[in-house]
Specification:
By secondary structure, the chain is α+β, with helices and mostly antiparallel strands. The protein is built from two helices and four strands; from the N terminus they run βαββαβ.
Length: about 80
């Protein structure tokens, strides 16, 4: 399962600059004009993986500072082929 960050087209360029100017650029993979893929964390340790939620919180904080409201982006899960 991969988590996808999708930003509205009107805020995509602002989001791209914010991500590229932060440490998050090493964590996120841009797959489209307004779409980024979050890294997949190893779930084999039988514990709930908090890395995904922590990264989402960092993105929310970054976007808040940059003036991108929560209405302008969303996170969704996408099944991966295994």
């Amino acid at each position: 399962m991969k988590t996808i960050l999708e930003v509205s087209l009107q805020e995509a360029s602002k989001a791209q600059v914010a991500i590229n100017d932060s440490l998050l650029q090493t964590e996120l993979t841009q797959t489209g004009t307004n779409i980024w893929e979050l890294p997949t964390y190893d779930m084999n340790d039988r514990y709930e993986c908090d890395g995904d939620e922590e990264l989402k919180d960092e993105i929310r904080e970054l976007f808040t500072v940059c003036g991108i409201s929560e209405d302008e982006y969303s996170f969704s899960d996408k099944k991966t082929e295994e």
